[in-house]
Amino acid sequence: MPSAPADDAARAIEPLLHPQGWALLNSLPPYREQDVLSRSSSLREAGHSPELVSAALTQSRLRARGEEKFGEFARSMLFTEHGLEQATRLPVAALHAERFQRAGVSAVADLGCGIGGDAMALAGLGLDVRAVDRDPLTVAVATVNLRPFPSTAVHLGSAEDHDPALTDGIWLDPARRAPARGSARGARRLHDPEEYEPPLSFVLDLARRLGERGGAAPGTLGALGAKLGPAVDRSALPEEVEVQWLSLHGSVLEAVLWCGPLAREGVRSSALVIGREGAHRLDLRADSPGDPVPGALGDHLYEPDGAVIRAGLLGALAERLGARTLDPTIAYLTADRRVDSPLARGYAVRDVMPFSIKALTGYLREHRIGVLEIKKRGTAVEPEELRRRLRPRRFGDEAATLVLTRIAGEQSVIVASPHGSTRA
Ligand SMILES: C[S@@+](CC[C@H](N)C(=O)[O-])C[C@H]1O[C@@H](n2cnc3c(N)ncnc32)[C@H](O)[C@@H]1O
């Protein structure tokens, strides 16, 4: 009978929790896949048990992978496969922690702390942290990872049993994955916030219980932050909270619910866009512009960052760019002037034509365009299928971006060059 994933995960950690195992792990050189077999044999020949060697090499691999999220800290941390997948990247966790610090919170309960990504950042800013998880192995791992921070305590327990009187702030990053149906391994993402563990209704109730401590008016929300999936519906959340969508290098990672003193006055939604040039924010307030008006294609096309779109900030971005939409239901913007913004990718428009494989083939041949980036919104055409049919490499070395979309109800192709490229 195959062993349960939880048993496998425990086997991959347990030998490392003993001093000899920990010492062996920390003595290993940087992980390289091609060295695993020879390293494994030499460690066994040196007298280490197969279980310890396997655990140490697995952990060494996870540490190498963990560097993407935790940088050099990963080299002294412990991970479980699932825990690493679900952990918040340290720079993002630092932004979460700053909110608590700016609001003057002194102690935070992290309910469902996982391997401790967010808890490390909170503790790193000097906050007292009570980290709780219901999974014993995860608690063991978080205990190791939080050891450098004396102001933390890690507990085995459930979020539902948390007493709001213990801390003046609460952070929750509910589990948003469930075992894939019909399989002992793999996971599927949960999109309904009531399926999260713990569910959104519990999170909101806890925000109220935290806010009502000490005799505050009924319905007052306390200093609670919770990470939700980016697809969460803003209209299903209370008016008075701030929901911030965060994107990192173009991918929308999360929507964070900020309650009570953690929400900024008058800000309903916001986008935090983090790229190579740093972090940029756009806020939705009661007086923010509404939906942008549709109009004709101009000399420039803008592809707004996903966080801006999710936060309902297309109108606010269009105002900044002096832009309009091509179609009220499609999130591309267009303008006559080039404006550089970290909140959108900009393109110089070279041509536009109705969608037709024959016309497009002729166009690419005529302009010797063989290097294509293909983007689409509001059309059923599949970029990879189109690329296969066009076989562009035969036409030459010129580069272009094809944007497949609908203009005034018609399937169209915009030929463009990214701002900053030699053609733009
Ligand atoms: C997404 S992970 C947290 C990741 C963490 N923020 C980090 O950065 O490492 C969610 C965690 O919540 C825990 N969990 C889920 N439901 C819980 C509950 N009701 N009480 C306590 N822990 C819970 C899971 O065991 C899991 O470790």
Automatic annotation (TrEMBL):
Signal peptide: none annotated. InterPro entries: SAM-dependent_MTases_sf, Thump-like. Keywords: Methyltransferase, Transferase. CDD domains: AdoMet_MTases (cd02440). Residues 344-418 form the THUMP-like domain. One of its GO terms (biological process) is methylation. Gene3D superfamilies: Vaccinia Virus protein VP39 (3.40.50.150). GO terms for molecular function: methyltransferase activity. This is SAM-dependent methyltransferase.
